[in-house]
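Sequence only, no structure available. Ideas?
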Amino acid sequence: MRINTTKGIALLVTAFLLGYGTRSLHSTKAADSSRKVTGLGGIFFKCRDPKAMRAWYSTHLGLATNQYGSVFEWRQALDPTQKGFTQWSPFNEKTQYFAPSTKEFMINYRVANMDALLAQLKEQGVMPVDSVQAYDYGKFVHLMDPEGNKIELWEPVDAVYDKMGKDMGYPTTK
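Reply:
I predicted one. Tokens follow.
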């Protein structure tokens, strides 16, 4: 069964809204090496008019949108006092951000320990398509899966990400 891009995105967003994101494991620096991906960090997709798409989702589905999309705020499963975030972002259909993939979407996965995971992946012959980029709010790197989907790994610093959003005046979708 083939699912078109719009239906696939709707399924992913629905799964998140039904609580998938709250099952994410607590991200720590000293993560158990068996824990690799701890949850969804973001859903990114191409569209003709990202501004209109953000407005439609805001109006019809109640997403709190900003110039990048929407940030879903949830609580960490292993430590409910800690917030977690998942970014939802429509991109212009001509974006090169998903390259070398030709797919219409990219998924960001939260990881507990980027360095340990990358070492394991390299041992298994999985090489990143770029180098790790570090920001105050986390580390990022990209991989390609066997079917040509570009995926983004993110080792988040949720407290900094939260503060950055508040400083910019961006509400979250709760």
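The chain has a mean pLDDT of 84.
Hope that gets you unstuck.
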